[in-house]
Design brief:
Blueprint (H helix, E strand, L loop, with lengths): L2 H23 L12 H7 L3 E6 L1 H6 L1 H10 L2 E4 L5 H4 L9 H12 L3 E8 L6 H4 L3 H18 L4 E8 L12 H6 L2 H13 L4 E6 L7 H15 L6 E4 L2 E3 L7 H9 L4 E12 L4 H20 L4 E4 L8 H5 L3 E2 L12 H11 L1
Parallel strand pairs: 1-2, 1-9, 2-3, 3-4, 4-5, 5-6, 6-8, 7-8, 8-9
Antiparallel strand pairs: 8-10
Bound molecules: (3S,4R)-3-hydroxy-2-oxopiperidin-4-yl beta-D-xylopyranoside.
Keywords: Carbohydrate metabolism, Glycosidase, Hydrolase, Polysaccharide degradation, Signal, Xylan degradation
Organism: uncultured Solirubrobacteraceae bacterium
GO molecular function: endo-1,4-beta-xylanase activity
Length: 347
């Protein structure tokens, strides 16, 4: 073999090795975002700032991982702690994917919000097939096992998610149909026993304004408090769009707070009708700013964004014609909303 040919092969091998190394590290570094990290400005205001995290993306995408670590003080596993993911078969737990997110959070000195223990969606078929007494038993076991596993790392749990329907009735979930309204109190009591140190939240979607849904939620939560059921907080998901926030968002949160509960915004995003343009992104930024201000006004504990990049957002994946719902674009570059959130936290 000629020297030239040998060198050529050597160079090719080197290029391949560098490329494999790059892939193993999960791609390139994130470009730093301008200004002070969100977690720092939020800390000065006494609140946590969080994001939903996708374990699969976090594992293979270095830039995604770096932004989470740099910008946020809490994380919520977007799907990995849901029933279908964590107990796919009765009594057979699959903690691996959630564990990986928890490990990253520990390294970045972040708190983890547990999402979610009792919810009608992303529920395995075996749960739906149970009769009342088995369902009650399986639900208690699920809560105990999952909370025990994450006792050291998860300080806040969405114990019950989305129990109310938009018309203000109790959602006719499998839990409601088999166990009646008492499933809510039972879940909170079980959770308190499983981890007496965890903050226990009821989380709801579309209950931001004063409406049929939030009125019913208020009655339920007030009833739980009156009965001495251990509930610590209410989470307002706050999936918004360019229609803006309900004018009475703050007033609504205040009435829950007056019951002696902590308030958190748990899944904020602002969907935009596609294609997005500069005007729409400015309008979006103003709404994000209002979300931050509303949270601060009611002295919320934390504000979690339901993802931080348009490349990984459930809005573009599930709502036809909508997207661009987060602070960063698909290339992880800041949109006007990023500066708006940063500015509103810093003020
Ligand atoms: C969504 C996730 O973002 C998606 O990846 C998944 O396919 C469906 O669930 N309310 C909730 C969240 O409480 O768990 C939902 O998350 C969004 C609505």
């Amino acid at each position: 073999m000629s020297v030239a040919r040998g060198l050529g092969i050597g160079a090719a091998v080197l290029v391949i090795l560098l490329f494999v190394g790059y892939l193993l590290r999960g791609g390139s570094d994130a470009e730093p975002l301008p200004g002070a990290p969100l977690r720092e400005v939020a800390k000065q205001r006494g609140i946590e700032i969080g994001t939903a995290v996708r374990g699969d993306v976090q594992k293979r995408n270095r830039a995604y991982r770096q932004i989470i670590a740099a910008q946020f003080s809490t994380v919520t596993p977007e799907n990995e702690m849901k029933w279908y993911a964590i107990e796919p078969e009765r009594g057979e737990y699959s903690f691996g994917p959630a564990d990986a997110i928890v490990k990253q959070a520990r390294e970045a000195r972040q708190k983890v919000r547990g999402h979610t223990l009792v919810w009608h969606a992303q529920l395995p078929e075996w749960v739906k097939a149970l009769g009342p007494s088995e369902l009650r038993q399986a639900t208690r076991e699920h809560i105990r096992s999952v909370m025990a596993e994450y006792k050291a790392d998860v300080g806040v749990w969405d114990v019950v998610n989305e129990p109310i329907s938009d018309d203000g009735g109790l959602r006719q979930s499998v839990f409601m149909r088999r166990l009646g309204e008492g499933f809510i109190a039972d879940a909170f009591r079980t959770a308190r026993t499983a981890d007496p140190d965890a903050k226990l939240y009821l989380n709801e979607i579309g209950a931001e304004g004063i409406n049929a849904k939030s009125n019913r939620l208020y009655e339920i939560v007030r009833g739980l408090k009156a009965q001495g059921v251990p509930i610590d907080g209410v989470g307002f998901q706050t999936h918004a769009n360019l229609d803006g926030l309900a004018a009475d968002f703050v007033a609504n949160m205040q009435r829950f707070k007056a019951l002696g509960l902590d308030i958190a915004i748990t899944e904020a995003d602002v969907g935009v009708p596609l294609p997005a343009d500069a005007d729409k992104l400015q309008a979006q930024a103003r709404i994000y700013e209002q979300i931050v201000r509303s949270c601060l006004t009611v002295d919320c504990r934390s504000l979690t964004l339901w993802g931080f990049t348009d490349g990984r957002s459930w809005i573009s994946e599930t709502q036809a014609g909508m997207g661009a719902a987060t602070l960063l674009d698909e290339a992880l570059k800041p949109k006007p909303a990023f500066g708006a959130v940063q500015g509103a936290l810093a003020k």
